[in-house]
Specification:
The chain has two helices and four strands, in the order αββββα. With 95 residues, the protein is of the alpha+beta class. Strand 2 and strand 3 form a beta hairpin. Keywords: Membrane, Transmembrane, Transmembrane helix.
Length: 95
């Protein structure tokens, strides 16, 4: 039973790490992304620009600085990592 709990915790930790990497690198525009809409006319000045992480969100500009978007990418992964840590902690406490 304990080895199953440890394996389950490890799986959640792995999912959290992979989820962070995949979402951050390939899917920055999630349904929960918040973007400004400045009503810019004409061609945008450039392409995708990554700024940084602010709190639990990735901050970027999809159109070269005209609009700014916040994606709570880390929030999804933190939930998985928290569950994994909780399961591993519960399993180790039971030893």
């Amino acid at each position: 039973m304990r080895s199953r709990m440890a394996a389950l915790g490890a799986v959640f930790l792995l999912i959290g790490g992979v989820l962070t990497a995949v979402i951050a690198l390939t899917f920055p525009e999630l349904p929960s992304t918040y973007c400004t809409d400045v009503g810019y006319r004409g061609d945008p000045p450039g392409g995708f620009e990554y700024y940084s992480y602010a709190g639990l969100s990735m901050v970027y500009s999809p159109d070269g600085g005209v609009n700014r978007c916040d994606t709570p990418v880390v929030t999804y992964a933190i939930a998985s990592v928290a569950v994994g840590c909780g399961v591993l902690g519960f399993e180790r406490r039971g030893r």
